[in-house]
Amino acid sequence: MDLSPLWISLKISFVATIVTFLLGLLAAWGVTRLNRGKHIVDGILSVPLVLPPTVVGFLLLILLGQNSGFGRLLMSIGINLIFTWQGAVIAAVVVSFPVMYRGIRGALEQVDPDIPAAARTLGMGEWKVLLKVLIPVAWPGIAAATVLSFARALGEFGATIMIAGNLPGRTQTMSVAVYTAMQGGNRELAFKWVLIIVCFSLTVLISMNYFTGRGFRRKKR
Q1: What's the pLDDT at 193?
Q2: Interatomic CA distance for residues 36 and 28, integer angstroms
Q3: How far is CA 150 from CA 13, 19, 184, in A?
């Protein structure tokens, strides 16, 4: 059994989670500071959450493909994201971003506003308030959002196959491997991949519940 889809999925998910964490944290922090238009910005950032993954993949294909101006610009400087694992990372980032963003935003909004206000009165700048006050206080919720975002990226299929294709050893993830095995009539192989995905996802979720539970108990004390 070729395990390359497992390693490709983990590589894509880890890279996508790092990028999504940074983007989601900045986006959530920025939205919580808005006074006007918060609902509009929130709706725009959450659009990939309600769109079918194949639609997201199609839009990315149009944006990054050779027929678009941006795609031709990338090709002119030697960057090709179509049918590459980097393209799969972009797809995973887009579909998992709303999960990260909304989870972090919810965690930040649950922080008592008197805490960052007190930090500001002591002379802390906004970046220090974010890094030294908000993130440590909201960390259990942020960690939960990060784990869920990783799980979402790990199980991504529709957008990935649209933009990265199904190249064994290069872009074939576990979800795509299940689809390929079923298309080829190899149900036994498909079932093995399903078991691996289920076991891995359960491990991730149980770990999330354990560590976030400890974090909430520590925060309560």
Answers
A1: 92
A2: 15
A3: 6, 11, 29
**Token representation of residue 175:** 């979800």
Report, as ranges of residue numbers, the positions in the chain whose pLDDT lies below 70: 211-221
End-to-end CA distance of the chain: 49
Token pair for residue 73? 């610009």
> What angle (nearest 5°) sits at the alpha carbon of residue 55, between those of residues 50 and 57?
115
- Cβ-count burial of 39 within 10 angstroms (0-12 exposed, 13-18 middle, 19+ buried)? exposed
- Spell out a b/e string for 111-121, using b for 16 or more CB atoms within 10 Å of the CB, else e: beeeebeebee
Token digits of residue 51: 């769109």
Residue that has been written with the tokens 């196959």 in this structure: 161
Q: What is d(CA 187, CA 174) in angstroms, rounded to the nearest whole number?
A: 14
CB–CB of 169/84 below 8 Å? Answer: no
- What SS3 string covers 155-180? CCCHHHHHHCCCCCCCCCCHHHHHHH
pLDDT in tens, 73-116: 888 888 888 889 999 999 999 999 999 999 999 999 998 889 88
pLDDT of residue 221: 55
| Selection from 134, 159, 133 nearest residue 51 by Cα | 159
